[in-house]
């Protein structure tokens, strides 16, 4: 009984720390909430995706991906257009973890992102989602200038049961 009360109290403290003035507190709170795996954290984490600090948004996106709660999908899809490449990359990863079928089109658009990490994360997410609508975009990514992006696109196509073009 006491242990459960402390657990709930600590959970409430972490949720409150998502709004703390200190950036490290907000980052650590988002990380912890993602590790705990309590779906009650989703609302607070969705709110934290609007944090002014890119590091908080990135860690929050990763935490939401770890929770794999589809309620976060619209907010994560919106963050695919974030000014910060780490936030775009983390949001793409999270949507892939959720296997969010409704995200394949915005993710396919990220295959043209200027940052290779974002393009690779988008390709990996598309592979996890497995929507056939992404095939043409993934085939195009097989010709990307970056080896990591090409490899992720090929892996995604293989996951969909398709044969990627030879390197």
What does this protein structure show overall?
The protein has 167 residues and is mostly helical. It contains 10 helices and no strands. The chain is elongated, with a radius of gyration of 17 Å.
The helix tally amounts to: 10
The largest β sheet comes out as:
none
Mean pLDDT across every amino acid position: 95
Structural class: mainly alpha
Radius of gyration: 17 Å
Task: State the share of residues found in helices, binned by percent.
Answer: 55-70%
State the shape. Answer: elongated
The amount of beta strand, in percent, is: under 5%
- Return the string of H and E elements: HHHHHHHHHH
List keywords for this structure.
167 residues; mainly alpha; elongated
Summarize the structure.
With 167 residues, the protein is mostly helical. The protein has ten helices and no strands.
């Amino acid at each position: 009984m006491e242990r459960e009360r402390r657990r709930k109290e600590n959970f409430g403290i972490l949720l409150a720390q998502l709004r703390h003035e200190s950036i490290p507190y907000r980052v650590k709170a988002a990380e912890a909430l993602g590790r705990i795996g309590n779906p009650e954290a989703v609302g607070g984490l969705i709110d934290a995706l609007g944090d002014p600090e890119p590091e908080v948004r990135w860690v929050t996106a990763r935490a939401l991906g770890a929770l794999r709660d589809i309620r976060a999908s619209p907010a994560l899809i919106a963050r695919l257009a974030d000014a910060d490449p780490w936030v775009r990359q983390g949001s793409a990863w999270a949507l892939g973890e959720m296997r969010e079928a409704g995200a394949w089109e915005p993710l396919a658009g990220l295959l043209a992102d200027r940052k290779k990490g974002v393009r690779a994360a988008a390709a990996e997410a598309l592979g996890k989602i497995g929507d056939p609508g992404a095939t043409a975009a993934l085939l195009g990514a097989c010709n990307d200038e970056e080896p990591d992006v090409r490899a992720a696109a090929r892996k995604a196509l293989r996951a969909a049961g398709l044969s990627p073009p030879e390197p």
